[in-house]
């Protein structure tokens, strides 16, 4: 019964997502004129754009690792081709449309369900992906705040002068999770919910995947900044993580407006507003808009192909 319902709603979901994605693409592009885009592209050195494109490709590859690690945790096997296809569409739509748990979950449900996973397994997979995301966030943020602490303004009236203590606390939470994963045996149960800690191998994969995600995405933006900015990578990554998390929490598509406003406010002491705005524009073009166009083409081609296959059957 469930499979019959899935066959009916699957094309509807596909068309709905394609429509939302096209509308999102239109809204992102209408804010900029072709002259603005061309003008900013000509200012940024071509080698910086090439570096940003390379790291964007690496970033979307790392997204596939989230799904691979989660499937390994569930002891489920699937071809990398299917994982890459589903992961790319899931992230390209969730990054641009917003509400990543919902949009990413719907895309994963649509494809992974027809390839043999149950609804419960997909839900567990999504939960482990979210956990991996925060493992990476805690690792990169904790280390960054400890290595290059930010001075806290006196207006906050806090007893500490910089963010190193916050970095220690954040990193300590990650260490606690690592120690529990290594030494805790069996299943952890809290208020009727159960969680099995990952094996040492999957734990290492989890830390590497989550950490490299933030490092590589940050590098995409950092590589586009002028060399004269005078901002160290550790200083920049803290700004970037703050803006990134604020954009994700807002559930605004691509963090549009929220992410941009925070990056402009944090980087303008070192750079002009127009320079930061131009960097943001190219960053969105490379990391969001072009992959969304590619995702629309891939999803459309897949659905049209399978529509003809169903008609022949």
Task: Indicate the topology.
Blueprint: H1 2-29, H2 34-43, H3 46-73, H4 80-97, H5 100-114, H6 119-147, H7 164-183, E1 187-190, E2 193-196, H8 200-222, H9 233-250, H10 258-267, H11 273-312
Antiparallel strand pairs: 1-2
Helix pairs in contact: 1-11, 3-4, 3-6, 3-8, 3-11, 4-5, 4-11, 5-6, 6-7, 6-8, 6-9, 8-9, 9-10, 10-11
Quick overview of this protein structure:
This protein is mainly α and 313 residues long.
Task: Please describe what this structure looks like.
This protein is mostly helical. The chain has one domain (33-312). The protein is 76% helix and 3% strand. The protein contains 11 helices and 2 strands. The protein has helices at 2-29, 34-43, 46-73, 80-97, 100-114, 119-147, 164-183, 200-222, 233-250, 258-267, 273-312; strands at 187-190, 193-196. Helix 3 crosses helix 4 (80-97), helix 6 (119-147) packs across helix 7 and helix 10 runs antiparallel to helix 11. The longest helix has 40 residues, at 273-312. It starts with a helix and ends with a helix.
């Amino acid at each position: 019964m469930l499979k019959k319902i899935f066959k009916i709603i699957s094309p509807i979901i596909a068309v709905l997502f394609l429509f939302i994605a096209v509308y999102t693409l239109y809204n992102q592009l209408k804010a900029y004129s072709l002259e603005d885009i061309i003008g900013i592209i000509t200012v940024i050195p071509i080698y910086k754009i090439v570096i940003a494109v390379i790291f964007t490709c690496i970033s979307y590859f790392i997204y596939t690792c989230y799904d691979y690690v989660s499937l390994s945790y569930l002891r489920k096997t699937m071809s990398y081709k299917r994982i890459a296809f589903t992961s790319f569409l899931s992230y390209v739509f969730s990054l641009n449309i917003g509400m990543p748990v919902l949009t990413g979950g719907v895309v994963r449900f649509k494809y992974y369900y027809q390839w043999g996973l149950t609804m419960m397994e997909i839900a567990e997979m999504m939960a482990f992906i979210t956990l991996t995301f925060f493992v990476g966030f805690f690792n990169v943020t904790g280390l960054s705040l400890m290595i290059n602490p930010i001075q806290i303004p006196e207006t906050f009236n806090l007893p500490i002068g910089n963010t190193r203590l916050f970095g220690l606390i954040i990193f300590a939470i990650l260490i606690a999770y690592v120690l529990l994963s290594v030494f805790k045996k069996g299943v952890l149960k809290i208020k009727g919910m159960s969680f099995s800690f990952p094996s040492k191998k999957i734990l290492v994969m989890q830390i590497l995947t989550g950490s490299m995600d933030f490092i590589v995405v940050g590098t995409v933006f950092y590589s586009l900044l002028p060399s004269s900015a005078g901002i160290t990578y550790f200083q920049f990554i803290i700004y970037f993580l703050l803006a990134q998390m604020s954009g994700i929490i807002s559930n605004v598509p691509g963090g549009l407006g929220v992410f941009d406003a925070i990056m402009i406010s944090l980087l303008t002491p070192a750079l002009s507003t127009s320079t930061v705005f131009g960097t943001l524009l190219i960053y969105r073009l490379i990391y969001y808009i072009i992959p969304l166009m590619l995702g629309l083409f891939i999803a459309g081609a897949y659905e049209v192909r399978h529509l003809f296959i169903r008609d022949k059957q």
